[in-house]
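Structure tokens please, single chain.
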Amino acid sequence: MIDVVDSMDNVENFIFDMKDSLASQYSSSWDPGPMRVSYEEAILNCLKAFNLKLPNDGRTDSGETGVFLRQLEYIMQQPLMKEYGDIKFRSMLPVDHQVPNGATQWTWRQYDEKGELRLITDPSADFSMVDVQGEEKQNPIKSYGIGYSVSVQDARQSMFAGVPLESMRAMAARRITERALDKLVCTGSAKLGFSTGFANDSSITAVTKNAQQSGTTWFDSNGGSLADPKEILDDVHGLSKKIFTDTLGRYTGSRLAVGTKTYAFLASKPQSPTFTDASVMTYILRMSPWIKEIVYWPRLDTAGANSKERMLCWDPSPDVARVMIPQEFEQFPPLPVNMAFKILCHVRYGGVAIYRPKAIAYMDGISP
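Here you go.
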């Protein structure tokens, strides 16, 4: 026996086929006599007699509505794109465009002075002659490409839906390119032809972190403090003092760059909750004679040994280091392919030139 009759037509057919059984359910000489019931009530009584039921408690119109659910939905007009970490390389290092975009490599020359001043004891003796000696360092320039396509139907659907699909794809190509350049500048990418970058070049100076009373890092995995402000300041001073002494005071290391976790720790940890509301970051800037700014670079989160955080200190001068980009991001005219258009994008990158490696120092082991 079925449990549910799914339509009124099926109910009527069911009653017609089962009329003899219905009569026997009440009495063998069943006669309704003068009692009259409505058509709907008769049907329901029949269904009850056979333990049957209509869906939705007997209503066949309960699934209908005057307003569809999607008609009550509001769609925001401004599309939101998924966001990634800040792209910081343009604010970290000077970007140079002087190399023509047709060059395949670029060379910079560094000269050194040779000679000394001597005491004259014999006016007829030869004077000491000075000279300059130079060396060349070459960097390759590589091209990188990315692109996007827009079909005729894409354009029609975009116009119909009011979604700027073409511009969204163009912006995606630009942002992906900038993120790739950010990685190339900071740590390099063997896949893209540069195995090292500014933060892990073998020529820059490593400084060993000082020992501390509690733990080995400034904070634990939960952000809890392990080092006191004086120990943190000593580590920072170790970087800037190394630069100052190795360059004989020519450079001081005025910029300190850390990863996002360390930046958040320094900015939020109070120096001494009992005596001052100043943060450790404010304390460092006040106490250091050389550090003038503390910035964060998300790429430094994994730039150190074993993919741990690395802290960098340097002077942000084009005489210390610069990024060479002979050709900034460019888009070529649309290329028709069947019923679509391809837009090819291109950029040329020449690496990071580190002119004063002793003016750059780094330290690992500050964060877990």
